[in-house]
Amino acid sequence: MTAVVPIRRTREARLRELEPLLAQRILVLDGAMGTMIQSYHLGEREYRGDRFADWPRDLKGNNDLLSLTQPEIIRAIHRAYLDAGADILETTRRHGRRGFIAISTTTKPDANRKPGAVEPWKIVWNW
Fold first, then answer.
1. Among 8, 73, 74, 125, fewest CB within 10 Å belongs to which?
2. DSSP state, 70?
3. What sections of the chain are H helices per DSSP?
């Protein structure tokens, strides 16, 4: 995969780009992320990956963690939605907060952001 350098734009600039598209057609949002993740039948080992192999808590079911331990799966799911015609990919807001990831993974939340999950978005939209 080609490295993508994110271009930082203001919310207003992003909305200016979306408004003409919304005037032309209905934009399609991606689908159920959890259902797609379940189709991979991941176990505790896959959720942990090498990075959290010795973590003292069960991590299976922490889908946000997969952006760190299985980014290729998250990219593949995003790519599948884009290939199916999605115009917009969502990322989680509920669990993506630093506090949740810190509690679930490590005590250094800044080191546990979810960069892998949004790469397809940046590739397609250069968002």
1. 8
2. -
3. 11-24, 33-38, 44-48, 66-69, 71-83, 98-104, 115-125
This model's pTM is above 0.85: no
Query: In which residue are the tokens 């991941």 written?
Result: 42
Q: What is the pLDDT of residues 60-100, one digit of tens each?
A: 998 888 988 998 999 899 999 999 999 888 765 555 444 44
Q: In whole angstroms, how far apart are CA 100 and each of 34, 35, 74, 111, 113? A: 17, 21, 19, 13, 11
- DSSP class of residue 61? T
Contact indicator for 62, 104 with CB cutoff of 8 Å: yes
The closest alpha carbon to 29, from 114, 100, 86, belongs to: 86
